[in-house]
Amino acid sequence: MKDKIHVGIIGFGTVGTGTAKILIENRELIKKRTGIDFILKRIADLDIKRDRGIKVPEGVLTTDAGAVINDPDIDVVVELMGGIHPAKDFMLNAVKNKKHVVTANKALIATEGNEIFAEAEKNGVEVGFEASVAGGIPIIKVLREGLVANNIVAVYGIINGTSNYILTKMTDEKVEFSDALKEAQRLGYAEADPTFDIEGIDTAHKLTILSSLSYGIPLSYNEVYKEGITKITAQDIEFASELGYKIKLLAITKLSNGEIEMRVHPTMIPNEYLISKVDGVFNAVYVEGDAVGSTLYYGRGAGDMPTGSAVVADIVDIARCDNGQKAKGIGYVSADYKIRKMEDIESMYYFRFSAMDQPGVLSKISGILGNYNISIASVIQKGRRLGGSVPLVVLAHTAKERDVLSAVKEIDNLPVVSDKTLFIRVEGKEE
User: Fold this and answer.
1) Which residues are bridge partners to 390 per DSSP?
2) Farthest CA pair distance, the chain
3) DSSP assignment, residue 417?
4) Please, what CATH class does the domain formed by 343-426 belong to?
5) What's the rounded Cα separation, in Å, for the pair 154 and 233?
6) How much is the average pLDDT of 305-320?
7) Which of 41, 139, 217, 397 is the most exposed place for a label (fewest CB within 10 A)?
8) 98 is catalytic
């Protein structure tokens, strides 16, 4: 084992700054704990003039990523620039130069990871990606190491702080989505273009990685069902509360009858479940294993220092790695599992119908639901608006998605229904 490891960073933004700060300021602490001296040799970024609030040794900063990738002394290249290109090219070039690589780039791993891991294995180097999911929560280490003896039954994650902040604000302050989004943007939790966060794309990137780690399937981002939170209203949150639930943007992967489910969508979770109490910008991942049972991991899912902590942990792991026990990228690959089509999943459902306030409407709607094997658990109807429409809320027992889609299509064509039906999937045990 080397007693010195030289590190190069490409990308000196928020996470790059946090990583550099930890490597510089905690250098002696890490050395005492590991017996290895981690030396930050190079940082590449297009902007090397801006003050990041940390003192970087002279000669470390460069505008040339090649100076990191091609430096013969650098053992580990850390990619923290984000995006797909040129980040992918930089990582592949580093791997071909026989350098280990570490990244926090979930989009890159989710969409291009199969190629990167194959190239890394071919060149006998490691790819660290702990920081790509849930920031400072060591969930990848948990799945790879802590729960290695378990068959994973299910994983549920709140893994996008922006969406969780918006839904929390809507819940606590009874404001609409647009107002909560503006506040998230004002505070810097949401980007000027928040599409990746509010449409579930960022969460789907992370779920792709968790699914592959849990079930040994290749990275399959295009197979993930994605649905964002833009259609959720303060009214839905209020109805959910009356029914004993909270609405969260949930990433779900589970093994069901030999098939893997991978889906991201707003989900109603019972109030008494611990994961429903995860609010604001915090993340949490619930993992159920056949041996360990239920476990929950909670913390900050983003930010310079939490994510930088995960990056440095990967660097340390790579330095400690016994060459005979390489992690080989995402882990084992199993050919036994298929990915379940979304229309085949089964869940409980919340429906909000916009129905005319007149006799016989509920019986018409419930009749169609019954024709598609959808059984009603409870009903809420608020307000009286003679000659107009009112919200009619139905909580249904477990049904098949395919049947729900067919029933909603038929119900929306009824003359007594004035607007498109909103439905939300519900997780939890049926009473």
Assistant:
1) 355
2) 80
3) B
4) alpha beta
5) 28
6) 95
7) 397
8) no
Please state which CATH number belongs to domain 4-135+306-325. 3.40.50.720
**β-strands 61-62, 37-44: how paired?**
parallel
Alpha carbon separation from 108 to 103, 199, 202, 318 (Å, rounded)? 9, 18, 11, 20
- Checking 84-88 for CB contacts under 8 A at 24+ apart, the result is 84/108, 84/111, 84/112, 87/10, 88/112, 88/116
CATH class (in words) of the domain with range 139-300: alpha beta
The position carrying tokens 């509920």 is 362
**310-324 burial: b if 16+ Cβ within 10 Å, else e:** bbbbbbbbbbebeee
Query: Which tokens go with 332?
Result: 């084992």
Q: Is 246 left (phi over 0), alpha (psi -120 to 50) or beta?
A: beta
Of the CA atoms within 13 Å of residue 391, those in its CB half-sphere come to 15
pTM exceeds 0.90 for this model: yes
Q: Mean pLDDT, the chain, as a whole number? A: 94
Please choose, from the candidates 271, 228, 265, 230, the residue with its C-alpha nearest in 3D space to the C-alpha of residue 250: 265
Whether residue 354 has pLDDT greater than 60:
yes
Q: At 181, which amino acid appears? A: L
**How big is the chain by its Cα radius of gyration, in Å?**
24
**Does 323 have pLDDT greater than 50?**
no
Residue 314: name the closest of 116, 88, 125, 67 by CA.
125
- Alpha helices, DSSP H, located in 100-222: 106-123, 139-141, 161-173, 177-186, 195-198, 201-215
The residue annotated as part of the active site, out of 88, 206, 246, 248, is 206
Three-class DSSP category at 67: helix
* Interacting residues of 38 by C-beta distance below 8 A, sequence separation 6+: 5, 7, 23, 27, 30, 31, 312, 315, 316, 319
User: Tokens at residue 186, please?
Assistant: 């004002």
Answer yes or no: is pLDDT of 401 > 80: yes
